[in-house]
Design a protein that fits this description.
The chain is an alpha+beta fold and about 130 residues long. Helices cover about 35% and strands about 30% of the residues. It holds the Pfam family LSM.
């Protein structure tokens, strides 16, 4: 009797296991803060983060959308798919390391993720110091 390996097609349909991601943790810590998000279609959104979910999809409130031609539009609420995001601007007033540590202390489900994130945070701080941004 022959034992067959599962085909690649069968394994494609298995649900992906999500590993903790430091960037996701950072973005979730921005809930309640006003941020600017550049989109791949050259539009820009500025609003208060209401929610960030696993696929890095955002919900923003009190949003100002700036189109590529410079036209602006005020919106009460916007859902942004993570795959459309080009860049998230971190507010200048935020020290990333301290901000994440405070967030993890307040959010019990993230305590184990902070250990994974610490080396990345140290590297980011070194880069920001080198660039004069910290």
């Amino acid at each position: 009797m022959e034992h067959k390996q599962p085909s690649a097609e069968v394994s494609k349909h298995k649900k992906k296991q999500h590993k903790p991601r430091s960037l996701l943790l950072l973005l979730k810590s921005f809930v309640g803060l006003r941020v600017r998000i550049d989109l791949k279609n050259d539009s820009m959104l500025e609003g208060v983060v209401q929610e960030v979910v696993q696929d890095m999809d955002f919900t923003l409130l009190d949003v100002c959308e700036t189109k590529p031609n410079g036209a602006t539009q005020q919106l009460d609420e916007v859902f942004v798919m993570g795959k459309t995001v080009l860049y998230v601007h971190i507010p200048d007033r935020i020290n990333i390391t301290q901000h994440l540590q405070q967030y993890c202390e307040l959010e019990p489900s993230t305590k184990s993720l902070l250990k994974v994130s610490e080396p990345i945070l140290e590297l980011l701080n070194m880069i920001f110091l080198e660039l004069g941004l910290a």
